[in-house]
Design goal:
21 helices, 74% helix, single chain
């Protein structure tokens, strides 16, 4: 066992699977399109009145493009990659009675990931952190590595099925309420007497309308926290963001972990089928892309349109969005693998390999740029000053800068600074950092 454990080391050089790096790089850079509005604009407007942030033709194009093509899917790609990454790491444990050191390393990595995520929440003050969620989900993943891909896919779809069932019930309840409201309104038009049940229906509808337009007391309290946070000092700013995490994220932590865990299971199944790491044919990836994109784009476009209305309608997105998110994410996997099959595609996507190898560091850098420079009251203070197209344009410029930085960085270093720290902590020994020293060691 000691001899086996001694061979465990990070995957480097030619042993890396380049398409996984590309997928990771695209995912971590693309996620900033979804995160930047929560740094740049009041949450009430993001949740309640999307057009109020700017609704010019360019704003609409920008918002719909992100909602349909990217929202939730960059998170989905990272979740799929966690499943695939676990298989890469656990390769030595696939044999019967494989080395305990692999499981030990895997758990250490994810425990440290949770701590990095909490650092992101409570020190960098990012309430939308995904790292602690992924770390918690990944802790449960290791025992599932030997299951067959069909079973893994079935288990991975359970969360989407749960959302579809509960969302369908919510949809049906809302349809029935709207029907009752219309019936009562017809009575009012004809000046017929209203029963106690009719009055109860109108009161229920009134409360729904108020909540849809104001967000209720909870949103009012957070709006005041935002006002203080963006006009005061560091304490008020920290209180605002930590309260957002407690109110909007930690309360749904179990659901977030379940979503990530199920998507990771799908990632393992895609690995076992050879899909995510590029082992299938170009024709296969083309067919898979179309099979996923065609229904997903339609469902997500309808759900996006529903989000812009100020009326508490029944939304198809309540039951369709998770299935559509999974399909769109897998469609992205197929598209990128299809592109990598061609020489022009490889050339276009090649810069994203560096982003994939520094993804952990780039993710933290996004929080520093957004929360501490662009939208902080002591920084450029662009908060509330940008429309949808402005925000997404800013995100694009940050992403371009990060992509350039990543490619310059990997010329001299083996990994990003936080990747290096994470690996060193997980392996409980300092890992190589400067490429020049690694090359000198190999020549010695």
């Amino acid at each position: 066992m000691v001899g086996e454990a001694a061979t465990i080391a990070p995957v480097t050089g030619k042993a890396r699977i380049e398409v996984l790096d590309i997928l990771r790089g695209i995912a971590i850079l693309g996620i900033f399109f979804m995160n930047i509005p929560f740094m740049a604009a009041p949450i009430a407007k993001l949740f309640l009145n999307i057009p109020s942030l700017g609704w010019s033709p360019l704003d609409q194009l920008s918002w719909y493009a992100v909602q349909i093509a990217l929202e939730g899917t960059q998170r989905g790609l990272l979740e799929l990659l966690f499943g695939a990454g676990m298989m890469v790491l656990a390769a030595k444990a696939m044999q019967p009675d494989g080395p305990v050191a692999v499981a030990d390393l895997y758990w250490r990595r994810n425990l440290w990931l949770i701590l990095f995520g909490l650092f992101d929440v409570f020190v960098l003050l990012w309430p939308g952190d995904i790292l602690h969620i992924y770390g918690l989900a990944a802790l449960l993943l290791f025992p599932f590595r030997k299951l067959g891909p069909n079973l893994l896919l079935g288990l991975g779809m359970l969360y989407a099925l749960f959302i579809a069932v509960t969302g369908g019930l919510q949809y049906q309840e809302r349809v029935e309420l709207i029907g009752r409201v219309h019936a009562v309104q017809e009575k009012q038009v004809s000046h017929a007497a209203l029963s106690p049940a009719d009055k109860k229906t109108l009161e229920e509808w009134r409360k729904l309308v108020v909540r849809r337009t104001t967000g209720g007391e909870e949103m009012k309290k957070y709006t005041e926290l935002e006002r203080k946070g963006h006009s005061g000092g560091l304490i008020d700013y920290a209180r605002m963001n930590i309260t957002a995490w407690i109110g909007f994220v930690s309360g749904s932590l179990l659901f977030n972990v379940a979503e990530a865990f199920c998507m990771m299971l799908i990632g393992i199944s895609l690995w076992k089928w050879g899909v995510i790491q590029g082992q299938r044919s170009a024709g296969f990836y083309l067919a898979l892309m179309l099979l996923c994109y065609v229904p997903a784009i339609g469902l997500r476009a309808i759900a996006a349109q529903e989000m812009t209305t100020l009326v508490p309608i029944a939304r198809t997105g309540w039951f369709s969005l998770e299935f559509a998110r999974i399909a769109m994410s897998i469609g992205h996997v197929a598209l990128i693998n299809l592109a990598v099959k061609s020489r022009p595609g490889r050339a276009v996507l090649a810069p994203f390999k560096a982003a994939g190898r520094t993804a952990f560091s780039l993710y933290f850098l996004q929080q520093i740029i957004g929360l501490w420079i662009l939208y902080a009251p002591w920084g450029l203070n662009f908060w509330t000053r940008q429309s949808w197209s402005d925000m997404h344009g800013t995100a694009l410029m940050v992403i371009a800068g990060q992509l350039l930085l990543a490619n310059l960085w990997v010329r001299a270093f083996t990994s990003g600074p936080l990747e290096w720290a994470w690996r060193s902590l997980a392996y409980v020994r300092w890992q190589p950092f400067l490429k020049s020293r690694v090359a000198a060691a190999q020549m010695a």
